[in-house]
Amino acid sequence: MTDGERARSRPSVLSPVIGLGTRAATATLRPVAGVVEAAAGASLRLQRRAVDRVLESDELERVVIVAVNSAHIQEALKLALESDGAARLVDSLFDSGLIDRVFERLLESEALWHLIDEIAASPAVTAAISQQGLGFADELGDQVRSRSRKADDWMERAARRLVGRKPSVLPAEPGAGT
Amino acid sequence: MSGVPAVGVGLVIADPVPEQQVAYVGLVTRVISFAIDAALITLVDIIVGVGAALILSLLHLPHDLRIVLAALGGAAAILGSIAYFVIFWSTTGQTPGARLMQIRVRTDDGQRVKPRRAVVRCIGVVLAALPLFAGFIPILFDSRRRGFQDRFAGTVVVEAPGPSIAEVSRAKKRAVYEASRRSPPAPLD
């Protein structure tokens, strides 16, 4: 048997002393630990109550409104949005593939297609589609009117040049406010 | 007149335009307007003529009677054409073609054209067209762009800017939609 094995197999003389010390320390600190635990719990409850009170109060609403209306905050937001950091943030958002993932999930969603069907069948959209033809005719009419007026002027000038007459100054039409 | 388009109104004006000044319409615009009306009248005549011919083909009428009916049909077509112009000129001052081209017939002093004057103008158009359309040439030279028919009947043709047919249609649809939104839904029994 080596010296080391002998040392390990020998019952420790200090063990009862250590155990006794530990028990004494535990017994001594137990009331203190209870007090500390109770104090921490009370603090947490107090914090929660304070947060609840703030959230329920009108003051928070007022603060939010004042903050949103604040010129400084708006200016700060504007500067933040115009900064290079915001641009980099957007770039990194797109580079991360998160947007692609969102769109993939959206396209797989039945709810989205249902929403699109509802919108497509809505009276406003069907009316807008039916107006497309009229809108085209309208545009065509505008073009024809505009060109015909130019042709009026051109033809009149040409005819007057042909007979050597000056352009006319048209008199006012009394009360013909059409 | 407010809202007169600045382009193509045929005005050569040195001073600022007074509010009451109107723009007279030139030959090309009037020809296009008349062509649209002629197309409409012809279309209606063709439909009526084909319908009448089909009905008559079922009846075994004597040849002479057919000729008389054809002459009556022709006279009805001419009267219909005259009525078309007289009714539109004397009511809104605009035929459908004029409505599309946004022009209007008015008397010399800016009043609505009465039926008698509209008939006179119709006769004036025919008289202007008879000598190889020479009666329309004065439109190019007259200070108020009046042709023979205008001088004959004491009328002028002026710009009449207004909402387009599409805009009117849109406004009607919007009004119907807003009315339907305002009215509460009917209770279900």
Any overview of this molecule?
- The complex is a heterodimer of chains A (178) and B (189).
- By secondary structure, chain A is mainly α.
- Chain A folds into 3 domains: 18-56; 70-108, no CATH class; 110-164.
- Helix content of chain A is 83%, strand content 0%.
- Chain A has 8 helices and no strands.
- Chain B is mainly α and 189 residues long.
- Chain B has 6 helices and 2 strands.
- Chain B has helices spanning 27-58, 63-91, 96-101, 115-129, 148-153, 165-182; strands spanning 103-107, 155-159.
- Chain B has a two-stranded antiparallel ribbon.
- The A-B interface holds A 123-124, 127, 131, 134-135, 137-138, 141-142, 144-153, 155-156, 159-160, 163, 165, 167-178 and B 1-2, 5, 7-14, 18, 20-29, 32, 93, 100-102, 104, 106, 109-111, 137, 140-145, 156, 158-160, 164-167, 169-170, 173, 177.
What are its keywords?
heterodimer, A: 178 residues, mainly alpha, 8 helices, B: 189 residues, two-stranded antiparallel ribbon, 6 helices, 2 strands, 56% helix, disordered N terminus
Structural class, from secondary structure content of chain A? mainly alpha
Q: Give the terminus-to-terminus CA distance of chain B.
A: 56 Å
Most extensive interface, chain pair and sizes: A-B, 38 and 51 residues
Strand content of chain A: under 5%
Output the helix-strand order of chain B.
HHHEHHEH
Kindly name the structural category of chain B: mainly alpha
How many extended strands of chain A? 0
Counting DSSP E segments of at least 2 residues, the number of strands of chain B comes to: 2
What letter string, H or E per element, gives the SSE order of chain A? HHHHHHHH
Shape of chain B: flat
